[in-house]
Amino acid sequence: MAKKQKHPVVVAELGRPETPSETAARKANDSRLYRQRKTVNNLVFSLIVSVGMMLLIVLMAPGLVGGKNSFEDHSVDVAALAADASPSAGRALAAPEVPESWKAKNAGLRQRDGVTSWQIDYTTVDEATDSHAYAAVVQAFTADGSAVEERWISQALEQQTPTGAEQIGGIDWVVYEHPDRNPDASNMLFGLQGEWEGDTILVYGTDSPATIRTLAASVASSLTASKEQ
How far apart are the C-alpha atoms of 157 and 101, rounded to whole Å? Predict the structure, then answer.
């Protein structure tokens, strides 16, 4: 039995069947609209994912929670870390007493070019002006007890030249005073280089010379006290 021939469907808008060219044009337009809808959906989905990731990052970043940079309040226990690191270092490590308003941001052992160093990084506070600055304490030594090379010291002090000498806390210091340097582009406007039982001691920063000298005196006192224990 022969199949009945299917009659073309009458399109309501036209009142007649589509021509082959009209059918092709309709299908092409439908494909174009489908791709556009798919692209928009993909964009919306990507935007939702991106916003979700941003919210996750904000929630995971402690410095951004509550709109406050908590790193400003971050401070480590220098004395405890020095006590923990001393056995590995094979010596007592400096743990100076500083004003309560200061924040010790980092304290730990580092290694560079064959030199091991105990470094403390502070954010200092001038209570009179409520301004902040930077100060560091470095106690550097070598595994075989040889002197720390001048090249290493120069790099630590940003290759600045000595400008004088003085004694603080029973330690003879080489002075590096360069007040004309930009504190936003440097960590060393004033520095002191001394020696304690073969270790190289550096105290420097962007705070005032008086503050750095006071810190150096506290470092010397800390080292003296550790020797007497």
Answer: 25
The encoded tokens of residue 174 equal 């080489």
Instruction: Give the global pTM.
Output: 0.70
Q: Which residue has the tokens 């920063």?
A: 205
**Tens-of-pLDDT digits for all 229 residues of the chain?**
555 555 665 555 555 666 776 677 777 777 776 676 666 566 666 667 666 666 655 555 554 444 455 667 789 999 999 999 999 999 999 999 999 999 999 999 999 999 999 999 999 998 777 789 999 999 999 999 999 999 999 999 999 999 999 999 999 999 999 999 999 999 999 999 999 999 999 999 999 999 999 999 999 999 999 877 6
CB 173: neighbour CB atoms within 10 A? 23
Q: What does each C-alpha distance from 151 to 9, 155, 157, 158 come to in angstroms?
A: 91, 6, 10, 10
